[in-house]
Amino acid sequence: MNGRAEWNAQRAQAIIDGNRHLRGALLPILHALQEEFGCIDEAAVPMLARSMNLSRADVHGVISFYHDFRRERPGRHTIKVCRAEACQASGCDSLIGHIERSLGVEMHGTTDDGAFTLEPVFCLGNCALGPAAMIDGDLHGRVTPARFDALVAETLASENPQ
């Protein structure tokens, strides 16, 4: 579950300052900021540029190049669906169609209720058990539409244990 803190410039600066000494520090700092806040807030770009003696364009270029970095906060749960060749051969395109219709959201989107963010990935390392999906870091193989629906129901039920 993505229980991330709201954006806080002082906390962000502390993360930057605490990691600035690392070799190739920009990537570890971006990962730490996203872990803390759920995304890379626009306000972080000038802070990073100033602190690391980079241009804003350089920072923006790194953020936009790597697909793992988000510019908007994700849903409470993140669903990643493998789009690699082995999963394509196992029917991931059909599964993705079902997921998009079921959740009412396209890839890279977040459901209106903020419950799920749907992301494509190109290999989850579960090639023999495709199509594969990952929900909040838990890997699932041989995911059918019915199994996906059950996984989503379990995920939502875990939010409100009785």
Automatic annotation (TrEMBL):
UniProt xrefs under Pfam families: 2Fe-2S_thioredx
The alphabetized UniProt keywords are: 2Fe-2S, Iron, Iron-sulfur, Metal-binding
Q: Which cofactor does it need?
A: [2Fe-2S] cluster
Q: Does the keyword Iron apply?
A: yes
Keyword Iron listed? The answer is: yes
PROSITE patterns hit by this protein: COMPLEX1_24K
The organism's place on the tree of life at top rank = Bacteria
The UniProt family comment states: Belongs to the complex I 24 kDa subunit family.
- Name of protein: Formate dehydrogenase subunit gamma
